[in-house]
Every structure is written in C-alpha cells, then in structure tokens.
Design a protein that fits this description.
Elements: E1 4-15, H1 54-66, E2 70-71, E3 74-75, E4 77-81, E5 91-95, E6 101-110, E7 113-126, E8 130-134, E9 137-141, E10 148-154, H2 161-177, E11 190-200, E12 210-215, H3 218-237, E13 245-250, E14 255-261, E15 271-272, E16 279-280, H4 283-291, H5 297-308, H6 312-318, H7 322-333, H8 338-355, H9 367-378, H10 384-397, H11 401-408, H12 416-429, H13 431-438, H14 445-455, H15 462-475
Parallel strand pairs: 12-13
Antiparallel strand pairs: 1-10, 1-11, 2-6, 3-16, 4-5, 4-15, 6-7, 7-10, 8-9, 11-12, 13-14
The structure holds adenosine-5'-diphosphate (ADP), zinc ion (ZN) and magnesium ion.
Length: 476
C-alpha cells in the first residue's frame, strides 16, 4: 500500500496560430532574423496603443468551447508588472481576474478508465521576447514579444505523472484538431509548468505545493514529476517540512532545483490595462464559432469503434491526429477493409513515415492506393508477404500497387504445376532432410516451405506450397 498520494495541476502555455501578434500587425513567423518582426507597439515605445487581434480572441473562444468551458460575455486585460530584459514595456498584458474562459474539462483515459480533468480557466496574454546569452554578453530578440498565448490552467485533479502526460497529450491533440496551436513542444509553442504536492493517503487537505518550471517535452513532464514527488515524500519521511517554492527542472541532471521561495515571490502589482477596452463577446458570435468546430478527438474515437468495429487501441492511435484519421477514413471509403487498413497504417505506413521523419500530410502513398493494394491481396494476386515489398515501392515511387506488381512481375504463383516444379527441385536437392522428415521430424516442413519461397522469390502462394509439399513427401 502506498502511503502518499500526489496532487498535480498543470499550467500550459499554448502559442496561437495567428498570422500576426496579439496587439499589433507584426508577423508571428518562427525562425526569422532577430528583431525583424517588431514595431513601436511590441517594442513598447512611449505613446503607442495596443489593439486586440480579433483572431486571437476567436481562437481563445474556440479553445474554450472545445474544452467545455463557459465563455465570459465580459472579460478584461490587466498589466502584470515585472522587470526583465525581454519585456520591453516593464509589464506583460495578460488576463487576470476576468479571463475569457472558465469552468471546463477534458477527458483522459488512464489504464482503460476514463477520467475528467477540470479546466479552471483559459486566458489570453502576450509572450515575452528571448534573451540570448553569448560569452560575456547577452542579446535580446523581440520577434516573439507580443505573440499571442493562451494559458490553460487545470484543476488539481491529476494524481500521477502518467495522468499528467495523458492530460498534456489530450490537450495537444485538441489544440491541433481545432487549428489554434501547432503543439510543437521543441519550438516552444506548447510549454508546461507543473504544480505538485503530496499528502498522506486518506488526508483531505492538500499538501504544500511546488511549481516546477521549464518542462518542454512529454518525457520531461513524467520525469520531472516523478523526481519531484519522490523528493517531497523523502522530505516528509525524514520529518522535514516542505516550503512553497518555484523549482526549475534541470533535464541534463534529471533533478529539480530551487529557484525562489514564496517569500521571494514577485508581487506583480496587477491592475486593469487602461489602454484596452474590456472584451465583450455576444452569444451569437460564440455560437457561430461553435458551429465551425470539427468533430473532436473523443467523439471521433467513439465513432471509429462503433462504425468500423476497431479495437480501442487502433481507434486511439488513428484519431490522435486529425490528418491521420482523415487519411484512414478515405482509405476505407475507397474500399479498404477497416481493420486491414488500420493494420497497414499502424504497421508499415507508420514505420516508413517514422524512418523518413515525415508526417501523414507528406505521405507519398494516397489512401486510395493502399485500398487498391489491399484488393490485390484479397484477390490473391499478391501474398501478404510480397505486399510489404510492394508497399515499400509504392512509398518510394508513389506508383499504384498494380503498376508495381506488373512492372516487377510480382504476381503470386498459384499455378499448381509451376509450384510443383519448384517443390520437386527442393526435395531432390535436399535428400537428407527428406529422409529425416520421413523418420518423423515433421517440423522440417517449415524448412522446405522456406526453400520453395526462396526460389520463387516469395511469389508462390504459401498455402498451395504447403499442401503440395505434404502431398509429394507422402508419395516419396
Ligand atoms: P497560485 O495562486 O500559486 O497561482 P493557483 O491556486 O492559482 O495557485 O493554482 C495554480 C495551479 O496549481 C493550478 O493548476 C492548480 O490546479 C494547481 N494547484 C493548486 N493547489 C495545488 C496543490 N496543493 N497541489 C498541486 N497543485 C495545486
Ligand atoms: Zn509589433
Ligand atoms: Mg493562480
């Protein structure tokens, strides 16, 4: 029996996929020359005025709706004051006491069980710039300053590092489905701060929480939380007490390090942003946005199970990306048997995509082409084994299965006489094995089948080979 239980709540920052920044018209493109995407507004020049990007507001509402939130008819921006070189105004414009979305939830599946994780709030804010440290000096790049972010705050409903990872993954999937964030953790478009505490099992109140910053991959969500939970339990078991603090995940060393305690916490002196009017959203606009939401991952997953009879595992994987699910459905619509399409996608297709580090959008094989290849297997034109070679060739060349089969002469040999000829050849050149087989070593049949397949370059129908071999061996 475990003595302690972990309580986790995540604060996730998601960069919105708008073309321009949240309060000015500068581009949000990633990877440009430093400071080429700036203007007087996002560099904080005196006298300029911010104007809210309508698209950013729409994306925040879209996200709130997809996560079952209430959309606030009236919300407001505030100034969060602090000093740092990457923050030219000396304050960040963020929503504080009146966020755009509240009281939502998303569902995760852990060990086969569905679980609801509450979303406390989603608010809009602007990103800061980036400090680059080189030798004895530092440089500041303000291209990212003013890029629109959403902060998605969860309730403390998460109970293990594994649940935290599932929650992050589901969040990312939804954000990508609805097209508001690319979810790229390496480039920082999805970042996570994790709040964690432990309490003795059975205790009602929460323990003292620690916020762990700087977690930038799913793997690190799990590792950082694992480490932090163990650390906290150890402190308690040794009779110590925990302090409320912010810690930094050091991925190189695999540890969390204290950054600042509650006493050293910033006082951000929040106050309402006087340069922006409050945000009002009417019911009609909210409903218009709701009408443009695509089928969401959970609904799609359920439908894949009921409509195509897929196992949960397949449905999970195929609906993890919208483009993958679309590809699947197109292949089935083109005549592919649902489970066969799933098997080929999860097996060969994923393998080839992974090897090429490509995504389904760049897949050289079209869904109808996979369906076409499956038809050739069904008709017995090619064997399942040859199909693997054919599929690799399809991936390499983009050609149809039929074309490849004809060009390479890969049509399965079902003609009995042709197979018999090879069978006899094999038996004649392996007299010792034939003798052993006749003396009871029946498992040698596998060896003979292998030899025939080798000589026919895998083209002989395996079932026919098996039958003919047994027949001939009996006659010997
Ligand atoms: P703060 O006042 O420090 O911002 P909040 O109450 O706003 O704290 O919560 C911030 C995040 O921390 C939320 O995701 C919330 O779910 C989580 N959280 C709050 N209390 C705890 C706790 N005792 N243990 C773990 N997570 C917590
Ligand atoms: Zn600008
Ligand atoms: Mg808070």
């Amino acid at each position: 029996m475990k003595k302690y239980e972990a309580i986790i709540g995540l604060e996730v920052h998601a960069q919105m996929l708008t073309d321009t920044k949240i309060f000015c018209g500068c581009s949000t493109k990633f990877g440009s020359e430093p400071n080429t995407q700036t203007c007087p507004v996002c560099t904080g020049m005196p006298g300029v005025l911010p104007v809210l990007n309508r698209k950013a507001l729409e994306f925040a509402i879209r996200t709130g709706l997809a996560m079952n939130c209430k959309i606030a008819p009236y919300s407001r921006f505030a100034r969060k004051n602090y000093f740092y070189p990457d923050l030219p105004k000396g304050y960040q414009i963020s929503q504080y006491e009146l966020p755009i979305c509240e009281h939502g939830y998303i569902e995760i599946v852990v060990d086969g069980e569905k679980k609801r994780i509450g979303i406390t709030r989603i608010h809009m804010e602007e990103d800061a710039g980036k400090n680059i440290h080189e030798g004895d000096h530092s440089l500041v790049d303000l291209n990212r300053t003013g890029v629109p972010l959403m902060e998605i705050v969860s309730e403390p409903d998460i109970r293990s590092p594994k649940e935290a990872v599932e929650y992050m993954k589901k969040l990312r999937t939804i954000l990508r489905y609805i097209g508001v964030c690319d979810g790229n953790m390496e480039q920082g478009s999805l970042r996570c701060d994790a709040n964690v505490s432990v309490r003795p099992v059975g205790q009602e109140e929460f323990g003292t929480k620690v916020e762990v910053k700087n977690i930038n991959s799913f793997k690190f969500v799990e590792r950082a939380l694992d480490y932090e939970i163990k650390r906290q339990i150890k402190v308690l078991e040794e009779g110590g007490t925990l302090v409320q603090e912010t810690r930094l995940w050091d991925s190189g060393a695999g540890v969390t390090l204290s950054m600042r305690t509650k006493e050293e916490a910033h006082d951000y002196r929040y106050f309402p942003e006087p340069d922006l009017v409050p945000v009002t959203v009417d019911e009609k606009w909210t409903e218009d946005i709701r009408a443009t939401l695509p089928e969401l991952p959970d609904a799609k997953r359920e439908r894949f199970i009921s409509e195509y009879g897929l196992p949960e595992y397949d449905a999970d994987l195929l609906t993890s990306e919208r483009a993958l699910a679309d590809w699947y459905e197109e292949a089935v619509k083109s005549g592919g048997q649902p489970k066969a399409v799933s098997n080929w996608m999860m097996g060969e297709l994923m393998r080839l995509l992974n090897e090429a580090n490509a995504s389904i959008e760049d897949c050289p094989v079209k869904p109808a082409q996979l369906a076409g290849m499956l038809k050739l297997i069904d008709k017995g034109t090619i064997s399942g084994k040859i199909a693997k070679t054919v599929f690799e060739e399809m991936y390499k060349t983009g050609k149809d299965a039929e074309t490849i089969v004809n060009e390479k002469g890969l049509v399965q040999i079902t003609d009995e006489n042709a197979i018999l000829k090879t069978v006899d050849e094999v038996l004649a050149s392996n007299p010792k094995e034939v003798e052993r087989y006749k003396n009871g070593e029946e498992k040698l049949i596998g060896f003979f089948v292998g030899q025939v397949m080798k000589l026919t370059k895998g083209k002989a129908n395996p079932k026919a080979v098996n039958e003919l071999l047994r027949k001939r061996l009996k006659e010997q």
